[in-house]
Amino acid sequence: MNKPTRKWRMFVIHHSHTDIGYTDRQERIEQYHVDFIRQAVNISKDIRSGKREEWKGFKWTCETFWAVERFLKEAGGEEQRDFAEAVRLGDIELSGTYLNMTELADEDLLRSIHVKAAAYGRSIGCPVDSAMTADINGYSWGYAQSLLDAGISHLFSCIHTHHGMFALGRKQTPFWWETPDDRKLLVWNGEHYMFGNELGLCPDGVGSYMIRDEFRTPAIVDNREEIMKTRIERYLCKLEEEGYPYDFVPVMVSGLATDNGSPNGEIARAIQAWNEWYGDGIVLEMSTLSRFFSHLKKQEAEIPVYRGDWPDWWSDGVGSTPMQTQLFRDAQRTLRKVKSLDPGQQIVSIQELADIEQELVMYAEHTWGFHASVHSPWHWNVQMLEARKLAFAANASRLAHRALDKVQRALGGSLLHPGRPFRYRVANTERHALRQLADFEWDGFENERFKDGMEVVDESTGQVVPHQPGVQCATVDVNLMSGERKQYLIRPATTPPKAKTTSNVKLVGADTVYDIEDMYPSGEAKDACVFSQHGAESPYVNIRWNEEGIVSWVIKETGEDLIRKDRKHGAFTPVYEVTPADGPVNPGSMYAVRSAMGRNRKGMNVQRSAGRLTKAKAVSNGPLYGAVELQFETLGMSCYSVFLKLHAASSRVDVSVRFHKDSVWEPENVYISLPFTSGMPQAETLWLDKAGAPVRPWIDQLPGTLLDYYCIQEGLSYVGENRAIMIAAPDTPLMQLGSLEYGKRLLHTQQNEETERHLYVWAMSNYWETNFKATLGGFYEFRYFIEWSKDVGSAEEAIGRCRALSAGAVVWRTQADS
To answer: Which residue of 247, 510, 557, 776 is 20 to 30 Å from 360, comparing CA positions?
Structure first.
């Protein structure tokens, strides 16, 4: 066997990977990690007291500050002091990350969690300059900016290529990650987070995951030293063959052959033994992140600079729990509303805000269920952990809305009492202007107040404003600048409503089917829209559909069509995929059919079908808006309807997709087609709202990163030279751009101008073979808000509009004197 030609140094970074719920109950995992810190502190004390000299050189990194926070909450004063001393002595290191996160977390939440480790480090006189993540394969662009804002200058990324892939086309390589504000974070694009175990560095903790060779490697083996020598030498030889520029390399190691593994002093003993035997050629050094990065920055080899987003392959887990994710996103937006309405925390305390953030973080953390979720969905741990994961989103929602209720009450909000006035306040809490149809609601027992009609008064002007009555509500068109608030009063009408009769010129039959356009004006008060079996029309847009779904969306002012001519499917048409298992449906086949999917998220034998529009039905019409329901037949669902609400006074359409998903154990995907364009496809750019910055997919991202899908925040926009279309997506964060076809996947820089790119919402998926929710059955409603404008010319303005559309105005009923 060949030997390495260089004199090598291997930095061994010992840590305990944090998966909250993959291997055990979430609360049990918390107990483990609190105890891991106690174990590490005791190892440090035993070494320094001389009790365990054979463990000299031991170093351990707290992978997540969440574990430290839990420990400090439980520990007594002496334990806290011992821990701080171990950190100051360098035996234990703090990582600047809080948890291993998905891209659900918005910019505010990232900033909140990233300051925690750094603040604690300063409090004990030990600054934190480095962070690590494990098991996740990417981050929103703003993640880097958030770390730098917290004083963290280094990030060690331990990727996991199970249904994912490392960036840059090469792992074990550094780069400077340039942020949206032009600063630079030093990143090491590393190996799997337990690669050191595969190299034999941990006694009784060996494995084979990335390395598949002649050795049989259960965790406990009799020939660990042989495995260790052979694999380390082979690995270093391979680095030399591949043109690796350094004479050192870092590897991560766990103290047990499992996620959520404890510290292990025996790793230090194994390293000492190696250095006695082979240290003249290959030196192993137990290291901290900070020590490793310090060594890296002294090297002469040039470190490249890359700028852009780093899409996370594992954010697709959020699509396996779509209802819970919807709750999370609503809670995160509600928290932002609370902060905007109460900027100085005069009403809602800092602790109350922190409690909301904690629940949000625990849901957005990357672990999506117990490891047996798919092949044993009836397992009690599967059921418990799923309920607990849901509880994080539900608790965040409960606490956020309680806080919003508290703020509204302090700002004159009215609770139930006799004689309560019909007075309503509307507020825009976003940074951009917002125009929307606001619903002023009341209780059913109050309907009699308005049996003869009503008027809505803008109290700032005293003028009666147009409204459209609904079921226990009146809808008003409101136009609000950033931070603006308005107040309205509803009172009984001063003139009785006109009696209704039949029309002699309206061409709708006794069957109520309206499939012919009128030949003569009716003379009635003009409704917002005109509906037929084939289309809908407002003063701003003419929408047409056929069996394929919505195929035309023409701006009346210019005649431009906002639906792509080369579309694969109509707008909001469902696309359903299922990959059949070989043989009978059972736990083994459900696991096997998924495990071979790789990065396709589907099998070669995938069965794909598109929904077929079967019926169009007008739902309501009036002076402010008209609504129509489009009913589809589609496989995998017992019903699927698209509701369009066309605004009369603005270039906006609100869309609701409602469906009942069948319960299917086989791997599925549900997509919703979004074949939109700004109307100028040759001169437009697609922008996505990512945490920290608007991003151009397939442009503003690191080489070798994911092209197929993206986890966005509040929406996306096609921005052209003279027009932009904004699509807010408050409920469904995953957007698919890569081909739906099974085949070779492309990474950034592998695409070209001819590469097919069609936009879909990736609404849900259960394809993963371990910890996704096994079935997606249930009732769902997902919302989308479409707005177009010739006055929006920048990505910042367009994405800001998306955020305002997604958040919507805050409406609450107030007291008479508020």
So the answer is: 776
